[in-house]
Amino acid sequence: MEPYRIKVVEPIASTTREQRREALVRVHYNLFGLRADEVTIDLLTDSGTGALSAAQLAACVSGDESYAGSRSFLRFHRAVEALTGYPHILPVHQGRAAERVLFSTLLKPGHITLSNTHFDTTRANVELNGCTALDLPCAEALDLDSDEPFKGNIDVARLEKALGGPEAGRIALVIMTLTNNGGGGQPVSMDNLSRAADLCRSAGVPIVLDAARFAENAWLVTRHEPAYRGHSPRQVAEEAFALADGCLMSAKKDGITHIGGFLGLRDAELARRCEQLLVATEGFPTYGGLAGRDLDMIAQGLAEVTEPEYLQSRADASHHLARLTRAAGISLVEPPGLHALYLNAGRLLPHIPPHQYPGHALACRLYLEGGIRSVELGSLYLGKEDAQGRPITTAPYELLRLALPRRTYTRDHLDHVGEVLARTAESADRIPGYRITEQPPALRHFRVKLAPL
Ligand code: F0G
């Protein structure tokens, strides 16, 4: 059971099917356009959508809002240093700001970054610096149905080849994303991380963690990596940070806060250069774009997020919803991770070709059917078409992500999602595909307009 009880509640929307049908028309079938009060269960993201603990709220009230050297910064610094071991810690307003500050400082045009899988903002920030982001996911990641426990791993053989290959001189950074959000929320094993770190050290290339979900990764390591069975998630997390040269962190995930993040570094000279950019663009180094109360709540959230009972209940919730999904006859990326389920919409809707966006079609139907908001991760997100709508590239899989906000929804809420999935699957053959009517030139999924076929 959940290791907490509820003290503060917020009403959620109850809408009629007709209201939801009208809302879909109004937002041109793009769920990012919905008002939050039109959504009953919001599974769009697990980022910044968690519930605060009483201890976090208390920390919020005791936040020190001094411009420089606040008590809140000192508490934040102590908490992050104790967890990561990095001597240089720069607060930032969220994960992508840490990416921008580090990449703008470290990368030069023409450089290459390697990763198990870059998250989309990470890739965008690499590319904005005139560099190339290359993903090297392990072969096991390609089989969505297999039960392999560490499908978030980097392909060590390809990493070794790249670091010793003709382009080696251009490789400036290796980024290990824990857990691998772009790759189905799958974890990275400690064995894989330590092999990657050894290769980077021999090649003289820095390795950093994209640590947004470090605690969830550590939990899965304690469950599935035999050498870590008796370890606590906190011990695994500390060891993971120790293997790297630094980290990029979005505290909106495993900091369990609504905003915030940090950049942690070992290298004093690199940290000094990053700090200069931070002062110019984020804020003074003892607040970095955050209020003192945010820093305090992150410090407390980082202490709570590795508690085994909390992580166990999070895993139980995701497994519960995974069972309901399978029982509805819908397959998902196996094994389910902790922060989200990735439903195989392509398999559920074989009558909808990739460039008519089966994942998006399923997202719209789940909203119409039960007020559930989710996000497509398929050819709407990753694909490209020519002016006539003919596909140029399609995504490898047509997925739909149901993200699970932290400490926010109860089993009853998840049971509602399960019922909606079951009803939706029963009439899956009547779900229409979509065509794009208008789209922006980049990051189209946020603002694209569509119409059903
Ligand atoms: N890295 C990973 C692995 C992420 O999942 C995200 C955000 C970021 C970096 C960027 O952090 O949002 O604080 O700037 N992921 C959210 C999501 C948006 O829904 O998966 P941010």
TrEMBL record:
Residues 42-417 form the Aromatic amino acid beta-eliminating lyase/threonine aldolase domain. SUPFAM superfamilies: PLP-dependent transferases. Pfam families: Beta_elim_lyase (PF01212). Belongs to the beta-eliminating lyase family. Gene3D superfamilies: Aspartate Aminotransferase, domain 1, Type I PLP-dependent aspartate aminotransferase-like (Major domain). The keyword Lyase applies. Keywords: Lyase, Pyridoxal phosphate. This is Tryptophanase. Its cofactor is pyridoxal 5'-phosphate. It comes from the Bacteria. InterPro entries: ArAA_b-elim_lyase/Thr_aldolase (IPR001597), Beta-eliminating_lyase (IPR011166), PyrdxlP-dep_Trfase (IPR015424), PyrdxlP-dep_Trfase_major (IPR015421), PyrdxlP-dep_Trfase_small (IPR015422). NCBIfam families: PRK13238.1 (NF009709). The keyword Lyase applies.
